Amino acid sequence: MNEKLEIARNWLPRYTGLALDEIGDYVLLTNFRSYLNKFAERFGCEIRSADRPMPAVTNARGLTMIHIGMGSANAATIMDLLSARNPQGVLLLGKCGGLKKSTEIGHFILPVAAIRSEGTSDEYFPPQVPALPSFKLHKFVSEKIIAHGHEYRTGVVYTTNRRLWEHDKEFLHRLQAMTCIAIDMETATLFIVGHYNAIARGALLLVSDLPMTPEGIKTEEMDRLVTRQWTDVHLQIGIEAMTEIEEKGERIKHFRY
User: Fold this and answer.
1) pLDDT per residue over 133-182, tens digit each?
2) CA distance linking residue 172 with residue 10, whole number of Å
3) For burial by CB atoms within 10 Å, which of 34, 72, 172, 176 has the most?
4) pLDDT of 37-46, one tens digit each?
5) Which residues are 95's β-sheet partners?
6) Main-chain phi, psi angles of 170, to 5 degrees
């Protein structure tokens, strides 16, 4: 195998445990196994690929969810491999740290852009290329958030490959100076590699901690609380948004770069 598409067609089933024709036109990505389990339970689907690096499941309507794990390398890998399937839309259901005083735990964020500080995206485009979502996909997601009676924020997300930084005062000052609304480890990579592979993409992020203050740093107890209170609605919004896009048959991509 020496062609990218040939490799991706071989690797996507190997990573996910699903044959190419078992992966739908619309895909949800998650960092958390609990999301995948809830998706499978809701639709009565069997996760046949529990031992794979990126276990996945597809419901009867053809909506696929893939558990990609944490970090920008994984985000890049799945967006490269999905080029073998060429889905119509991909939405990340992720969590993030809120960086603004107006941002609270449980708020939803639809990023308008992401700062590429994770390094992985540099392998795809020069640093001058912005990491952007497909805005029409975000339009469907925003409508579902409002329909469920929730507020959401928009802004720029800072994406980093560094996980343990909450103690670093210099790093915190740099984050404040950039006026980002949130920080995560996947969004910029997802946007850039999606752009590279001409895949429509978006991210619906849930604020799970407030790392700019010592008392806001995520703990196991806080993570359990966030999971218990907001996982179901987070997942529901993602499912409804992607299902409606498919039902309406609207094209997400308008331009070819």
Assistant:
1) 999 999 999 999 999 999 899 999 999 999 888 888 899 899 889 999 99
2) 42
3) 72
4) 999 999 999 8
5) 206
6) -65, -45
Q: Is 164 helix (H, G, I), strand (E, B) or coil?
A: coil
In 3D space, the residue among 29, 27, 28, 35 whose CA is nearest the CA of residue 230 turns out to be 35
Residue 71 confidence (pLDDT) above 90: yes
Cβ-contact 186, 128 below 8 angstroms: no
Given a contact cutoff of 8 angstroms between Cβ atoms, the answer to whether 27 and 82 are in contact is yes
The tens digit of pLDDT for each residue in 232-244 reads 999 999 999 999 9
Query: Residue 117 has what DSSP assignment?
Result: E
Q: What are phi and psi of 158, to 5 degrees?
A: -95, 120
- What's the pLDDT score for residue 110? 97
Domain locations in the chain as residue ranges: 4-248
DSSP β-bridge partners for residue 98? 182
